[in-house]
Amino acid sequence: MAVKRDYYEVLGVSKTATDDEIKRAYRKLAKECHPDLHPNDKTAEERFKEINEANEVLSDAQKRARYDQFGHEGPNMGGFGGGGAGGFDFNGFGGFGGGSGFDSIFEQLFGGGGAQRSRSAPQPGNDLRYDMKLTFEEAAFGCEKTFDFMRGENCDVCGGSGAKAGTSASTCPTCHGTGQVRAGGGFMVTVRTCQTCGGTGKIIADKCTACSGSGRVRKRRSVTVKVPAGIDNGQTIVDRGEGEPGMRGGPSGDLYVNITVKPHKLFRREGSTLLLDMPISFAQAALGADVDIPTLDGKVSYHVPEGTQEGARFRIRGKGIQNLRSTTRGDLLVTAHVEVPQKLSEKQKQLLTQFEASLSGKEYSGRKTFLDRVKDLFQ
Q1: What digits encode the pLDDT tens for the residues 329-377?
Q2: Does domain 1-59 have CATH number 2.40.100.10?
Q3: Angle between helical axes of 61-70 and 42-58 (0-180°, round to 10)
Q4: What local confidence, expressed as pLDDT, does residue 298 receive?
Q5: CA 269 → CA 14, 260, 273, distances in Å?
Q6: 122 and 160 in contact (C-beta within 8 Å)?
Q7: Rounded to an integer, what distance in angstroms lies between the CA atom of residue 117 and that of residue 122?
Q8: Low-confidence residues of the chain, pLDDT below 70?
Q9: Given Cys at both, which of 127, 138, 265, 284 links 134, Cβ 3.0 to 4.6 Å?
Q10: SS3 255
Q11: What is the fold of 267-378?
Q12: How far is CA 234 from CA 4, 73, 75, 90, 328, in A?
């Protein structure tokens, strides 16, 4: 199973980025990762391909709109699609299982044999989509998830033929088994799909009661997907061959598992970096203190240095999110927020007043700089 990164993440732009911003980001990254600048570097080559793939979708307004709505498989849907139960899309993606629109038009006008071949040749099965929700911890550490879904499969009763047991389909009398009806002559010959047999070239007189002659039935299937550690919101896991089975010996489609990660009560993430906002008391900030900092692995002890200011950041190495493409972990970045007491007794107020009066002013570097600036402004 391969994991595709979010295209916006690949180019380093937001989902509201303009066309110019996308173009600038692509040009910058393409220059940095161009294979000519990194000969024999497979990582740079793969990165270059990833950048080009992301740009091809996000620079096209229609593909981008379908990507925003349906994820990675959206740009290949060609504007068609339908929703299935349980978050699945049971329609074929972007021409899977058939020829392109131009090929079909060409065949109708000039009598090409492509349509006939596509009807009788093996056809790949449809891809399916499943939307999976993960907890923050499941995404960070990886897990295995088992879920059920419905997919169309060949009917067990008729073996996919659509004919009642003991019978078989007969050759269509209209198209004589070609699946096409030709008309005209000379230079202009039109070819259209046979309306009698629907282009299959076969007529089923006695239909299978289990599948009503379609040769396909809906079945519930269960699959276990291994979620890699470090996967992020909006990324996709592709489980090859778990889509719908192909027709006439064609390969099965794939199962696209789109990931949604639930927010955490304490942590946020930026790539592999874990972010935490942590309050500390006025005394801890002024005097320094040993504090317990929560991480995804449990608490770690950290010494807050004396004189810590509001917004100061501390880095805890290796306590972030694992990188998808390696076993290394990012860092935990802790932002300190100094809390000022809100309710003080009269005695506490007196003590603070005495404490403040005992200071020379040099202890507050920021206030001293500010007062110096004010003095210079009004001189």
Answers
A1: 999 999 999 988 888 889 988 888 888 787 766 656 555 555 565 556 5
A2: no
A3: 100
A4: 93
A5: 15, 14, 6
A6: no
A7: 9
A8: 1-3, 36, 76-121, 184-188, 360-379
A9: 138
A10: strand
A11: HSP40/DNAj peptide-binding domain (2.60.260)
A12: 9, 12, 15, 20, 22
First-to-final CA distance of the chain = 70
Inter-residue contact 281 to 293 (CB < 8 Å): no
Provide the pLDDT for residue 194: 86
Beta bridge partners of 302: 291
Of the candidates 281, 277, 293, 276, the residue with the CA atom closest to the CA atom of residue 338: 281
Residue among 310, 301, 305, 300 at smallest CA distance from 288: 305
Alpha-carbon separation of residue 285 from 278, 313, 356 (angstroms): 12, 12, 16
- For residue 184, CA distances in Å to 52, 110, 173, 191, 225 come to 46, 11, 20, 9, 54
DSSP string, 156-185: TTTTTS-BPTT---EE-TTTTTSSEEEEEE
Contact assessment for residue 245 and residue 255, using Cβ atoms and an 8 Å cutoff: no
Domain with CATH 1.10.287.110 in the chain: 1-59
Rg, the chain, Cα only = 32
